[in-house]
Give the backbone structure.
Amino acid sequence: MLAAITVLLSLLGAYFMPYLFFITPVPLIILVYRHGMRPGILVAVTSALLGGIVLSTVPTMIFLLILGLVGLAMGEALREGFPPHRIMLIGTATSVISLLLMVAVTAVFLDFNVLETTFETMERSLQQALKVYERFGVEEHPLFKADSLGEFMRLLKLALPAALLTTAIIMTFVNYWLARLILNRLGTKLPWLKSFRLWRFPWYLAWGYILGQGLLLVTQGQGNGNLWFGVGLNLQILFNYVFLLQGLAILWFFLDKANLPKLVRWLIIIFVFNPLFTTLVVWLGVLDTWFNFRKLGEGEPT
């Protein structure tokens, strides 16, 4: 049954909603947690074979095998009783490996560079958007400047490692959340991450943010081809997300403490998402690593 659900998810992902393809590990997580690794491997192989037969493509079979690694790893981590942050770490590492393997398989078996095609599609979409802007007489957009679009696309390519890791984290979070939701319905209570208002990352991560900002400052004017510029850009993107989450957690903590209605809290959070306030929230998260504005215990990272 779980093999059939896995194949069904892959079919829906292939023909209707591509994002469903990335939650195919969920049935395997449940199976491995409840019955162990050996049945999990058997179902992973069976699902891949069925998917390959139904969709008549070898890459689909290989993709399901690769995504099966995520399900097996996270299911075993749950079975071993690891804490949520360690399950997230294991799932993220396996997801990164899986995404890289899928890119490699696509290049080898289909002679198709999925990354280049994605960037080309994005560039065409941006060009069409700029034409719409131009049609409405809006020509002050930064991308209208000479070679700005090409420069923007080069920055996107440089930021690929950060994008890959962010995708892996989101993919892991969604799979873990869904698997836990289903297992809870089946009567198994599993641990979850701390309440969002209490999220606080280790203090030393702030140095990653500072290093990213410092590298961008030092390499300014040396061109986007500079290796250290690329390292700084990826660090900046990753740690911006990390400390944006921590800053939002601080904001939510004090809004909750003030007993504001949830609707008002959400409106304030939505209002924060503009460039000026977002930067302030990120810095709030960074400074919290030293000043502990909520006076929380050190605890484990979530």
